[in-house]
């Protein structure tokens, strides 16, 4: 039995790897090329996040972002990017609100998706509460509402991804909706190899409406953890990421803002992911050092827009 | 005919004045006393507005405020006032979003109240658009949602009022809902003499469900206009208000925030009501001069909480 499952796993990995090589090659690169999307999550969260992220895309090496539509600052993003027509910007599907003093709820309305809100009427704090309380229908309704909201303010999303991974780490049906809507709107949805194998492959029947051959699978998604922040720190981590990047399509998730009064006030809840952390991301990815690391390691930046054109 | 209408008007004014004297007297003052609520609108709008308003209530002479529940920063207010149990705080019923880059929509959900939102899914910019597009049922639903949202985060509202006056300057039915819900929740709703005569008195049949004897009518509502801001400026205006205050119950509406990056970014749309204006309100109402003006003019501060207890 072990032998069989090993064989099956090997076969799956072969399949996935074949597709990955295909993705890199379809993008016009060789399977040995190190491709990277430097992706700033959370634009729209706050004014500070907006202006810092845009600055890091104009002056630094950040080349993709995704927007949190339930925030009132989402509209400022639409205004700020008017003179940046080629900008790579997706919808950062947001099903939670993890801050204490800065809260929002579903764009589809709390009465339309009661399972997505707590007693206070706002989104739940974490993905576990989303998975426990929200139905797949509610999640699908809210994903659609957020894509439509982006379109309504003039943002043509280049991709979808998931804030805090709540779409990925809830119920497989959430992933079905996520891939289904990406397919419907004709944009790629971030999907990484490990997740595809854990969630999609064992539930093929659930995903029967999805054209799985068209799902664009990223080789590696990289992100600094709280442990990394507390130990080696962000600059060393990002330096290591660049120096050790694997061939294939990689996504590095960062969060860019200024450590100002607004961001400090929003992020009081945690000792991580706060203004200082986000300022650190800004500082690194607008530095000369970061640009040099790209060159030295022959890393090629790619975008979701390019992937979406495949 | 003219004679009759003059008589009717005189009669109405007599009635209203009798009630006003009653309000002052019921509060334990004489009809000659100059009573004042110094009311900071718009708490909840932004972090800057929150901390400046609370500071002006702790250190200055601001003694009442009302909260904008559709803003994500409303929850910070609930946190900030935990150690201020006597705080006079109402719900600033918000049916618009007048800023360009900082937008929100109805708490009852845009699908539940489509007439309250524009094509972009956010509230309309001004009261005229609300009056043209929203039904009385939608307005009532949203007023209720905002009161319930305040209660859900632990705020016991002391009163209701209306952001930009959209409840007052729309359709008389909006005022019916406003007074009806105030009656249902057992809190006063700001209503000034002139408005009562313009909207309520000629439409008595519409207001048949409201116990009009219980409506607390304010003698004067004072607010700096854009013309005042551009001519004599805020300090001179507020000095005049204090020196010329009339006997009875007066409400002075101000807007308190710091002129910081956040407030500047929110208020880009207008040359008025911006961070500089709000900083000016903060500066005046935390000044020694303002305190002295209260004393010199023998002005007595009263609150909505006191009015609500009548």
Number of continuous helical runs of chain A: 13
Query: Regions of chain A with pLDDT < 50 over 5+ consecutive residues?
Result: 1-18
Domain module count of chain A: 1
Distance between the termini of chain A: 39 Å
Q: Summarize the helix and strand pattern of chain A as letters.
A: HEHEHEHHEHEHEEHHEHHHEH
List the chains of the largest interface with their residue counts: A-B, 37 and 37 residues
CATH architecture of chain A: Alpha-Beta Barrel
Helix content of chain A: 40-55%
Biggest sheet overview of chain A? 7 strands, parallel
State the CATH topology of chain A: TIM Barrel
β content of chain A, as a range? 5-15%
The outline of chain A comes out as: globular
- Indicate the structural class of chain A: alpha/beta
Return the CATH class of chain A. Alpha Beta
Query: Radius of gyration of chain A, rounded?
Result: 19 Å
Could you describe the 3D structure shown?
By secondary structure, the first copy, chain A, is of the alpha/beta class. Chain A has one domain (2-308): TIM Barrel, CATH 3.20.20.370. Chain A has helices spanning 2-26, 47-58, 74-80, 127-133, 136-152, 172-185, 193-200, 226-230, 234-243, 261-266, 275-285, 288-296, 304-308, and strands spanning 34-43, 64-67, 89-93, 160-162, 191-192, 217-218, 220-223, 248-255, 299-301. In chain A, the strands form two sheets. In chain A, strands 1, 2, 3, 4, 7, 8 and 9 form a seven-stranded parallel beta sheet that branches. In chain A, α2 packs parallel to α3 (74-80), α2 packs parallel to α11 and α9 (234-243) runs parallel beside α12. In chain A, 50% of the residues are buried. Mean pLDDT of chain A is 93; it is low at 1-18. The interface between A and B is large, with 37 and 37 residues.
